[in-house]
Amino acid sequence: MFMEPKVRRVLVIITAFFITNALLAEFIGVKIFSLEKTLGFAPVNWTLFGKGDLSFNLTAGVLLWPFVFIMTDITNEYFGRKGVRLISLLAVAMIGYAFLMVFLAVHVLPADFWIVQTQNGQQINMEQAFNAIFGQGLNIIIGSLVAFLIGQLVDVWVFHFLRKFTGHKMIWLRATGSTLISQLIDSFVVLFIAFYLSGPHWPFKLVLAISLINYTYKCLMAIILTPLIYVVHNWIDRYLGQKLANKLIETAAKQS
Fold first, then answer.
1. Percent of the residues in the chain that have a pLDDT greater than 90, as a whole number
2. CA neighbor of 171 nearest in space, from 104, 72, 100, 103
């Protein structure tokens, strides 16, 4: 089907930004950081489901996932279910391809002169460091991708369900609402697969507790970043022109 050049450019930009953020989130996710210490606060040390000393210790990937969800909602608004399905499957394919290439990179033999390097006056075994950062377990990769796909499918369904009641108005409600519901599932599924079904086999209550903490952070970010949805929405409307933008939105709504 023929697509207006401006519409095609918008879809390409959204897709590129979506995939780049999703891919980067997977790779930087190996770092665990303290949200409280980063913001200059003492750890909250909550007790949930009988598990104590729980704080906002999060993967660095959460810095990028909120922007992925915003792009999902924007794609939903203008390109409907088919658009979200397209960019989601592309993202999964590219992430899978990237992990395959990283797997090969981890297993090729290093050059002797590269193994030990001096950084800031300290000797570092580069081979061990490289493997530690990029050699994520298969269970974590599978859990992340399955959770991502399920989260996207739920996000699409909830977004269009809310659209039946809001029409073209209140994008904040369907965007934030769909994110809050989809991430409740996503936050649990990724840990359930990666750390309960396989891997270290965490106790189920620990999975629930950490999932809830991760979900709390995602809820806060979804609310804080809501204005950004309007910024992107207004830019697309101005770039495409209101007539063409409305036509896309109406076509996307018919897919619900």
1. 30
2. 72
Whole-structure pTM value? 0.85
Q: Which residue(s) pair with 219 in the sheet?
A: none
DSSP labels, 25-81? HHHHTT-EEEHHHHTT-----EEETTEEEE--EEEGGGGTHHHHHHHHHHHHHHHHH
Q: Domains (ranges, CATH) in the chain?
A: 5-31+61-108+123-253 (1.10.1760)
Q: Answer yes or no: are the C-beta atoms of 241 and 183 closer than 8 Å.
A: no
DSSP output for 239-250: HH-HHHHHHHHH
Write the CB contacts of 199 (distance below 8 Å, at least 6 apart in sequence).
137, 139, 140
Neighbours of 211 (CB within 10 A): 21
Residue 142 in tokens: 């599978």
Residue in the block written with tokens 């269970």: 139
**What is the Cα–Cα distance from 256 to 254, expressed in whole angstroms?**
5
According to DSSP, residue 116 is labeled: E
Q: Within the chain, which residues score under 70 in pLDDT?
A: 1-2, 136-139, 199-200, 255-256
Distance CA 141, CA 250 (A): 37
Question: Rg of the chain's alpha carbons, rounded to an integer?
Answer: 20
Name beta bridge partners: 32: 59
Q: Which two tokens stand for residue 79?
A: 């390109």
Q: Which of 221, 218, 223, 84 is nearest to 152 (CA)?
A: 84
What is the CA 73 to chain-centroid distance, rounded?
Answer: 13
| Alpha carbon distance 232, 238 (integer Å) | 10
Please count the other Cβ atoms lying within 10 Å of the Cβ belonging to residue 256: 15
DSSP element (H, E) containing 124: strand 122-125
